[in-house]
Amino acid sequence: MKKRAWLFRSMMVLSTAFIYTRTDAQISNTISPADKVYGLSKFWQEVNYNFVYFDKIDRQTWDSAYKALIPQVQATQNDYEYYRLLKKFCALLKDGHTEIFYPDIKGLSFMFNTFGDYLLVLTRVDNKVIVKRTWKKDAQLFPLGSEIIEVNGLPTRKYIQDSIAPYISSSTDYARDDVASGMLLMGTPGSTFKIRLRKPDGEEAAYTLTHAKVKDSVFYPDLGAYPEEQKREGFAWKLLPNNIAYVALNTFGADSKVDSLFERILPSLEKSKGIIIDLRYNGGGDDGVAFNILRHFVKDSLILGAASVIRTYDPYLKAIGKYVTPADTVGNRNKRKAWLLYNGYAVYNEPGVWRSKVGEETKRLTAPVVVLTSHHTESAAEDFLIGADNQKHIIKMGEPTNGSTGMPASFDLPGGGGARVCIKKDTYPDGREFVGYGIQPDIRVTPTVKDYLENKDVVLEAALKYLQNRQGNAAKTGPGKD
What we know:
The protein is an alpha+beta fold. It has three domains: 5-101, no CATH class; 114-222, Pdz3 Domain (Roll), CATH 2.30.42.10; 229-305 and 356-403 and 438-473, 2-enoyl-CoA Hydratase, Chain A, domain 1 (Alpha-Beta Complex), CATH 3.90.226. Helices cover 28% and strands 22% of the residues. The protein has 13 helices and 21 strands. A six-stranded mixed sheet has the order 11-12-13-16-17-21, sandwiched between helices. Strand 8 (192-198) and strand 9 (204-210) form a beta hairpin. Helix 1 (33-50) packs antiparallel against helix 2 (59-75) and helix 8 (287-294) packs parallel to helix 11 (380-387). The longest helix has 20 residues, at 458-477. Mean pLDDT is 89; it is low at 1-23.
């Protein structure tokens, strides 16, 4: 594994640029300098002992970053500046299950999209930050689909890299960019942004926007016009043409009962000629719920889920490790472990692979299956995909998944905030990693800006076409020859 020394190349530039651009005496400063150092130290130490990806961190640069922050957190002018530094420190770990959470901070308010006379709601589509909503009166001024190409004198990509992404905890760059795009023009009241956008017809225009209360209320398009804005139940299903079933599993939450709801439609699914499972808006939940559903699709008697590892700690061996050289570790397991512990490298125990038996009484669905994925497919939803990985009749279609799963340990921080640190690493059963990379679809389908604005579901359309083509091929070749 390569060390993540590159995480810390900009550690000496731990400023609070981006959202907070002015000193505001009304923002509370309730955390004492001593508590600020304590909170920083607590997070640093929890990472040292429990962060499961600590083997990917260069220990010396991590410690140097911590030391550099001590005087900086003491010098922060308010609680917000303090937590901003903690968030930037945390984001260097690049893990979506390791995060810092703001407390309620008195006197602090943010505006995402409102600039008095203007409204600009942004999203990221096909690697572009585009305008997805404005006031109806400004539809010609800010045409939908216009791309933001420059912010405050910098290309948008550069501005995100310098001023927004460093504060976002994420395991994959594209998930971080998705979040950053929506926050591109986030600021405090009175903060100003100079932007340049490229309209769909190619014309470019420049604007100076200052955050202020809204002066209009007629949205274009209406609220709820886009897929990510629509209210979704945890479970939904319908029958599509050619007797193909569509099943949306939008959560695997333990209290969602989606597995029980799924059981109710089994008689209908048994008659289907193909099944589409939509996990594009599933942010995770309980693996047990996920596997209760998956067992109906697998052809084996056992589902192999993610292999998991966690760190272990032995203070006795760590003490011994001070006197162990690399040469001493050759052929000596205990000395190797002692050396690793003393030098700060992760040492794991191995609970093994998640296994779930599939009883003989389980109803099996034999129709071909397409699972739809997106950047929002995360955590237990990714574990569902791992369990289905060796099933040849199941394919994945859409975009790469979020690339973040694991089990976090949560704790409090001074001033009412909190943090969590990922303590469990999941991989495929054979050790292949997907955290930090995302699970890749077998067939990649990426909506264009035009598809997005027209609310055209090209991923679902592609899945339906794929299954219909399989039906056609089966009809030509005959039973058992497809």
